[in-house]
Specification:
CATH superfamily: Metal-dependent hydrolases
Largest sheet: 6 strands, mixed
Structural class: alpha/beta
Radius of gyration: 18 Å
Order of helices and strands: HEEEHEHEEHHEHHEHEEH
Strand content: 15-25%
Length: 266
């Protein structure tokens, strides 16, 4: 796991957050709104960022949040971010529009909570292809039986077996990553089943030193272990990230890194 705490902005005096996000990193070599990049390069990635769709204190008075978040992500040195609210895709379209003329890649996402036999607090980070928008993510949630009245409700638990959830997600072309399952001993008890039964090899960890748990229990298995920011405010964006080698900086590149393994190849 290769963490990156974001790039410091040097000046004669410390800059306020609002000053930082007023500056836009410009790249003169854009193609279709995205920078030309080589293959199999390392990209700085933060795949768990909340928005005003679930957390109102992402806002700063007088500043449009979506463009501000894009500018701040570039200040922090991020190449790829995912918008991942609990049961909401409302901020995906504004973020994609705000990033259209930048070289920042925005991955649509959503966070859901479900249960397996050993734990009813399994948190899944669900990621989708770039062409997915707010309406597409809402269709995904409705197919999981999530009522519109529970959109944005962090406490809601999807009443569907994990295998069925994954089938619906894969039908939408998405990928899932367990998120912060090391946060409590109760959640950690579900990790063996997630690894051995469901084939997860990529995890978003709450604590970097939890990597030793995986090494101890599955010494011959290759994992992709990350620790993303779980940003609940603009200041937290990019506070924790990862450098990931990708064939492309978008969803297809990430898919190759985070995909589950089948029982036959496990």
């Amino acid at each position: 796991m290769e963490a990156n705490e974001g790039n410091a902005v040097m000046s004669d005096r410390p800059k306020s957050l609002s000053e930082k996000i007023e500056k836009t990193s410009e790249n003169p070599e854009l193609k279709n709104g995205k920078a030309r990049r080589g293959r199999n390069k390392k990209y700085v990635v933060d795949l768990r960022i909340h928005s005003p769709a679930s957390l109102g204190y992402m806002k700063i008075e007088g500043i449009d949040t979506a463009p501000a978040l894009v500018r701040l992500a570039k200040v922090k040195g991020l190449d790829v971010i995912a918008v991942t609210d609990f049961y909401s895709g409302n901020f995906i379209d504004p973020m994609v529009e705000a990033a259209r003329e930048s070289d920042l890649t925005v991955i649509p996402g959503v966070v859901i909570r479900c249960a397996i036999k050993s734990c009813n607090d399994v948190v899944l980070l669900c990621l989708f292809p770039e062409e997915y928008g707010t309406e597409d993510v809402e269709h995904f949630m409705l197919e999981l039986g999530i009522p519109r009245s529970s959109f944005g409700d962090e406490r809601y638990t999807v009443d569907m077996e994990l295998s069925e959830i994954l089938n619906v997600l894969e039908k939408h072309g998405g990928e899932a990553m367990p998120s912060r399952m090391d946060k409590t001993p109760y959640r950690m008890g579900a990790i063996p089943e997630l690894v051995e039964k469901y084939g997860f090899r990529a995890f978003d960890l709450a604590y970097a030193d939890s990597a030793s748990f995986f090494k101890k229990n599955w010494p011959r298995t290759k994992f992709q272990l990350f620790s993303f920011s779980n940003a609940n405010s603009l200041a937290q964006v990019g506070s924790r990230s990862a450098k990931i080698k990708l064939s492309t900086p978008g969803f297809e590149g990430l898919k190759k890194v985070v995909s589950r393994v089948t029982a036959a190849s496990a």
